[in-house]
Amino acid sequence: MLGRLDSLILTGFCFLWMGCLGVGGRLVDSVAIPASEVPSFEQVLMRVTRIKRKNIPLIVYLDGTYTIESKRDLGKEYSDITFRPAPNAKHPVLTGMHKITNWDQIDGIWKTQLPKFVNSFFVDGRRLPKAKMPLVGNYTVEGQYSLEDNSKFCYKGQDINPNWIGAEIVTVQAWAESRMTIKEVDPTMRTVVLSGKMKPYNIISNPPYWVENLVEGLEVPGTWAIDKNNILSYRPRLGEEPLKTECSVPLTEQFFNIHNLSNLSFEKINFIGSDWLLPPTGYANLQADADLCGTIQMEYVNHCSFIECEFAHLGSHAIWCDNGCNQNVFRNNSMEDLGGGGIVVGYNNKLPGIHDISTNNIITNNQIHNIGNIHFGACGITLLYSSGNLVTNNFIHDTFYTGISVGWEWDNEPSLIKDNLVCGNILTYIEKNRFASRPGTLLSDMGGIYTLGSQPGTMLTDNVIDGTYSALPSQAPGIYLDQGSDGILVTGNCLSRIDGLQYWQHMAGNNIVMPNEKCGEMVFTRKVGSSLTHLLVK
Fold first, then answer.
1. pLDDT tens digit sequence for 459-487
2. Which helix (DSSP H) or strand (DSSP E) does residue 165 occupy?
3. Phi, psi values for residue 335, rounded to 5°
4. Phi, psi of 171 (to 5 degrees)
5. DSSP secondary structure string, 95-163?
6. 3-state percent helix, strand, coil for the chain, nearest multiple of 5
7. Alpha-carbon torsion 213, 219, 224, 226, what sign?
């Protein structure tokens, strides 16, 4: 609670309270910046830096919905700042969404001109799929993809129309997906040349694929496509009318690049609406979509926190703590409808020294669900090159791939990864496909909890894993200690409805596996407020 008030200053539309006594008698400044007066969050940030006093914490009270039009760098000048709702205000919203209000109707198709190309489209708060071919199911590659700089493949029959240049090929192979545009089509040889190169590690024979962003696919209501002139076309569902339907697209890929600071906090803030755009050379996932970015990207950040925030309708991962992130807290957040995964900690390559590794971060009591809607291989929580992290009491469900992934080495050589505790989490419906237009599961070679590489002191304990599924039979174990996993303790976990072995160790080293239970049918109560779940084991 704030105490004595030294002075009150009017700054534009904002009231700045200076010299209040905070907890422990420390001076704290505070300012109210309502969206009704400052609707752009970029302007909020500029105003904050003008009024922030050196070495004195600042609380910024927000109220309403603020727009984010492009990524903002938050450097050391944003240290010691807390963003939270104004008293009696609902959760403030930071949004990258652009509402569509002007439609032309042509032969049952709605059309609108957008200011830029987009990869995501929402109607009444629901992410809708791009128009695709085939309309239902998928095609099958004849043989394998080549591994040239521009990968090639052979298609069957007349699956590919030579006029589909620029359309997007989406392929799933084993544990990873790829997205490439069509560069060339040779109908005589039945070959397609793609915009980029496939990863060599997960190439399989006759993988499934489909073609997205096609006008031909607009036969299906609730699908959309966008052309090179940024004209979006939408086949409405039964009963939808332009003036009564809320349509929106995200116009920014990232919100913040937070770096080289400490003690920045967001409390009860909603982050809504970011996109992900396919690079010119396409995208091929190595594993866990660990070469994307976060809507909120962090590097060399210490003692920062996101508490009771909501993340929704995002194009990639919600948060990525890259290298040098230490003692940050992510607690009681809700993350849903994500193009990628929830929270990623650590760097995805070998680091030059221990000062760069991310350590001692706390990820607790978060609900992460309905993820991987663009990047199927994304995980609920991913720990890469990082150590000493606490991942506890999170509820992760409805994913396309692994729930929690720990480690990033494919051998058991000594590394800086160690002492991660994964405890008391609930993971259910792992790799459960929710798209009726692509029936069945998509990926395989994954687990409820998955580990890689030597990581002495890491413990997987007292987790509940209920329901794993795999595109290939028996390739979704409950706990999967993969290549190089070494020095890990696995104990006290409860496993049910597992597609494959309850516990699987593959090319791993010396790990201790103590009693883990095979439980009966489980009933979950979804998160309500800050109370995570209730679990009933029959």
1. 999 999 998 888 877 788 899 999 999 99
2. none
3. -130, 120
4. -125, 140
5. E-EEEE---EEETTEEEEE-SS--S--EETTEE-PBPEESSSS-EE-BS----SSS-EEE--TT-S-TT
6. 5, 45, 50
7. positive
Q: 120 with 313: CB under 8 angstroms? A: yes
Predicted model pTM: 0.92
Among candidates 165, 198, 168, 170, which has minimal Cα distance to 183?
165
Structure tokens that stand for 483 in this block: 């290549």
Backbone angles phi, psi at 44, to 5 degrees: -60, -45
Contact 322, 349 (CB under 8 A): no
DSSP bridge pairs for 491? 461
Identify the three-state secondary structure at position 30: strand
Q: How far is CA 395 from CA 331, 498, 524, in A?
A: 12, 17, 10
Instruction: Say whether 364 sits in a helix, a strand or coil.
Output: strand
Using DSSP, state whether 365 is helix, strand or coil: coil
Give the tens place of pLDDT for each residue, 503-525: 899 999 999 998 766 665 444 44
Q: Is the dihedral of CA 502, 507, 511, 512 positive or negative?
A: positive
Residue at 20: amino acid letter = C
C-alpha 432 chain-centroid distance: 16
Q: Are 358 and 323 in contact (CB under 8 A)?
A: yes
Identify the DSSP state of 454. Answer: B
Q: Which of 300, 337, 323, 316 is nearest to 254 (CA)?
A: 316
Q: State the DSSP string of 294-329.
A: EEEEEEEEES-EEES-EEEEESSEEEEE-TT-BS-E
- Determine how many CB atoms are found less than 10 A away from the CB of residue 79: 21
